[in-house]
Amino acid sequence: MRHFTSVHDIGNLDVALKEAFELKKNVFQYDAFGKNKTLLAIFFDSSLRTRLSTQKAALNLGMNAIVLDVNQGAWKLETGYGVIMDGDKPEHILEAIPVMGSYCDIIGVRSFARFENKQDDYEEKILNQFIKYSGKPVFSMEAATRHPLQSFADLITIEEYRKTDRPKIVMTWAPHPRSLPQAVPNSFAEWINATDYELVITHPKGYELDEKFTGKAKIEYNQNKAFEGADFIYAKNWAAYTDPNYGQILSRDRAWTVDSRKMALTNNAYFMHCLPVRRNMIVADEVIDSPQSIVIPEAANRVISAQVVLKRLLTDNY
Ligand code: CP
């Protein structure tokens, strides 16, 4: 694996999951693996879990870890080509990226969709510039269209909790006061579609995602119907994908909030969310505080997914 940006880079999922569970038995078993190797984790956007879990994964492998918050202390970066740089951005990403690459061995990048230009977002302009110009293996710590470290951790968690061979997994849209990217739902759908599990996606009309990600999933506009018999409920908000509403909020309908009445329709489903979560918007307190909520073990598995990915990047590139 040269870079890690999606499920397509991880290869056989059963092998990757086996590796994750083997690693989970003792996360320090490869503590000399990354000796003298440096991770540079670059954040264009805020983070709690990704920032901490990725550093922890690197430290577990014996790597050094440097974190750069681009918007706090670094020069503001111009990303457009051919721009006359007479504004407030004194450095171009075309110099900054190779410089950053010269200080490290592996680069993690977090850069969300900007909702300014759909094509730029869906072409993953920022992430791909790191791949092109850094000269180093690059992995996504959530890009404009995908969040593969999250989805890998989600799948590890589903494997740990599933009670049937082919669980019914329901990804539901839920309301949020701000406009959020489609990266988490796109990626979750893509990873679950790489298994043979049943995936149902439920959302209000107008919130259809790119079919490239939703693939064989069933789209059900009736949330109650979608929840019937579910083994896992994966809640997430996202802004509209389809034109002309790309990036817009079309609904704040709290009838879509996941509450105990809806959870009662399921097969005693586990509740999942990537976090951070807006309580009583996305999910009612009574659900996230219930024994069926597995959001904390899900977040803890972020260390495992990051460690498998870093270990593979080290193995295949050094
Ligand atoms: N789930 C997730 O990526 O969390 P952060 O945004 O806090 O990193």
Question: What does this protein structure show overall?
Answer:
With about 325 residues, this protein is α/β, with parallel strands linked by helices. About 35% of the residues lie in helices and about 15% in strands. It contains 12 helices and 11 strands. Helix 2 crosses helix 12. The longest helix is centred in the last third of the chain and has 23 residues. The chain is globular and about 55 Å long. The site of phosphoric acid mono(formamide)ester (CP) has 9 residues, from helix 2.
Give a concise summary.
The protein has 318 residues and is of the alpha/beta class. It has helices at residues 13-25, 49-60, 93-102, 118-122, 125-133, 148-161, 183-193, 211-214, 223-227, 260-263, 285-288, 295-317, and strands at residues 38-43, 64-69, 77-78, 91-92, 106-110, 138-140, 168-173, 198-202, 218-219, 232-236, 270-272.
CATH topology of the largest domain: Rossmann fold
Instruction: Note the gap between the termini.
Output: 11 Å
| Unreliable runs | none
Classification by helices and strands: alpha/beta
- Alpha carbon gyration radius: 20 Å
